[in-house]
Amino acid sequence: MSQLYARLFVIFAVFCFTTGAVAQLPDCDAQRYSTDIFPTVTVTTSVTYGQNVTAGGVTKTLLADVYQPAGDVSTRRPLIILAFGGSFLGGQRTDMDSYARKFARKGYVVATIDYRLYDGSLFAYINQSVFMDEVVKAVSDMKAAVRFFRKDASTVNTYGIEPNYIIIGGYSAGAITALHAGYVDAAEIPAYLAPVFAANGGINGNTDHPVSSAAGYSSDVQGVWSLSGAIDAQNYIDACDPPLFMTHGDQDAVVPYGAGFLTSPPQILVVVNITPVFGSSVLATQATAAGVPNQLYTVAGGDHNAIYANAAVLAQIDQEGSLFLKQNVVCSSNNCVNVSPANSQTVCEGSTVALSASVTCGTSPAYTWSGPNAFTSTSANPTIPNATTAASGSYTVIVSDAGKCSGTAVVEVLVSPKPQLTLLPGSVSLTGCNCNTSTVVARATPTGTLINWTRTPGGAPTPDSGTGTNEVTITQSLPSGNFTYQFTATLNGCQTAGSIPVLVP
Q1: Class of domain 5-330
Q2: More confident residue, 15 or 273
Q3: pLDDT for position 31
Q4: Which residues form the BD-FAE-like domain (predicted)?
Q5: In 3-state terms, what secondary structure has residue 196?
Q6: CATH topology of domain 420-504
Q7: Inter-CA distances, 473 with 263, 456, 484, 498, Å
Q8: Mean per-residue pLDDT of the chain
Q9: Where in the chain is the domain with CATH 3.40.50.1820?
Q10: How far is Cα 14 from Cα 194, in angstroms, rounded to an integer?
Q11: Residue 104: which of 70, 134, 129, 138 has the closest Cα?
Q12: What CATH code would you report for 337-416?
């Protein structure tokens, strides 16, 4: 079969990703995440991540299989969560085994997950509201998996995951699930779907771990990977949404390549249009218009299923998909969280440390700062007045937002000590003696401290100003009057000042 590849590759000048990464992952290099560098993969099977009730009223325990590159010592690896296809009626998590192994050999951690399948009446299944309820149930399950692994990574880190780099994806129904989980925001839920979301726990769903809840953790993701997927409304994808990689056959009769209808699966003998959706070609155009990095690999003449049995197509998905995720997600340092100072801040002891955080986009960001010397704050712009050297170190802000932007950023702060300045004597009074010669001494530590001095009033005798290092001794014959020797000790831009008054009768 001859193949024409239509690609759309957008690298945006200014990214505003949903998630916030501290910076790019430390293990990014020329090969990792785009090349098979680990020959073998280890698999941990049947990890319980959630539990919920199916449409038919059956309590379903949700499991995941976790794939890791054997021999990898990194503890900060991106996670990809994959969901299988099957029209929400069939399929199993092991269906994504080959894709999971491909990513794991490149250095990813991959979880293939269960989600609730429809177990009600097939006659009811073709009803748009019933079908979309099943989609939202699957979205709820996938978001629970995100929270489960994010909690684990943020606590015991069983699987060596960096929680700020989580990608979701899947094939067919699994891709539909990932697209809705990645791009539908609470404010974007259309009126006809509002009751469906409400019945399933809202935008984050109501699926949870039956033993150890991860409900307090974010469901945000940093990237989406879609094989033959579609979404309910194209305008779900807007500015600051996560990067998107897609593969689709342009002759797909099940999930449309462009705008069209999802059709009934083989289990239903009569072909029925279930619900209107927008396929990959429309999503590519929408993502580009919104400034969301995206790439579409189109399989010319390709259908819904057979293209994934084609070795050339699989090789192209492997090559293009992994490179796109590497360049736009896991090895990108872009972040929707802005901090000030951008890199590091140096202040002098006794000054005010001023920190600031904001989001590129979002609706109601909440800020949690932590840092040295037991520092905490929930202000977007906290300050530390009269800072001591104990305030030096790394300050981390975690931003959570009900809208687009959640993430983490780090600011380095150095509080430089002021030099010590000793003045002898504290004051000079020549009253009562038949003399007008005074001697004053200024000593500064540590070694290398510069001392500048001036005398007021100035003029004769000269000099009336000067410099020295570490110690200055000034002996001068002065006329009658009140004089002041002023000293400034400077080290690394930090200063300490003092003065000695002199009275001459």
Answers
A1: alpha beta
A2: 273
A3: 93
A4: 65-188
A5: helix
A6: Immunoglobulin-like (2.60.40)
A7: 94, 17, 15, 15
A8: 90
A9: 5-330
A10: 33
A11: 70
A12: 2.60.40.10
Q: With 90 as the cut, is the pLDDT of residue 334 above it?
A: no
Dihedrals phi, psi of 252, to nearest 5 degrees: -65, 120
Q: For residues 112 and 136, what is the distance between their CA atoms, to the nearest angstrom?
A: 18
Q: Does residue 265 or residue 152 have the better pLDDT? A: 152
Asked whether the predicted pLDDT for residue 7 surpasses 70, the reply is: no
Check: CB of residue 230 under 8 Å from CB of residue 262: yes
In angstroms, the Cα distances linking 115 to 276, 440, 482, 504 are 23, 83, 87, 92
Is the backbone peptide bond immediately before 425 cis, with ω within 30 degrees of 0? yes
This prediction has a pTM of: 0.73
Q: Which two tokens stand for residue 214?
A: 């991860």
How confident is residue 383, by pLDDT bands cut at 50, 70 and 90? very high
Sign of CA dihedral 149, 150, 156, 160: positive
CB count within 10 Å of CB 88 equals 23
| Count, residues in the chain | 505
Q: Quote the pLDDT of residue 93.
A: 98
| pLDDT per position as a tens digit, 235-254 | 999 988 899 999 999 999 99
Distance CA 115, CA 51 (A): 9
Q: Answer whether residue 497 shows pLDDT above 90.
A: yes
**Chain centre to alpha carbon of residue 72:** 23
Is the Cβ–Cβ distance between 366 and 434 less than 8 Å? Answer: no
In the chain, where does the domain assigned CATH 2.60.40.10 lie? 337-416, 420-504
Q: How many helices (H) and strands (E) in the chain?
A: 7, 29
The alpha-helical segments, DSSP class H, found in 200-307 are 280-290
The alpha carbon of residue 131 and the mean position of all alpha carbons in its chain are separated, in whole angstroms, by 33
Contact 292, 18 (CB under 8 A): no
55-77, pLDDT tens digit by residue?
Answer: 999 999 999 999 999 999 999 99
Q: How many C-beta atoms lie closer than 10 Å to residue 308's C-beta?
A: 21
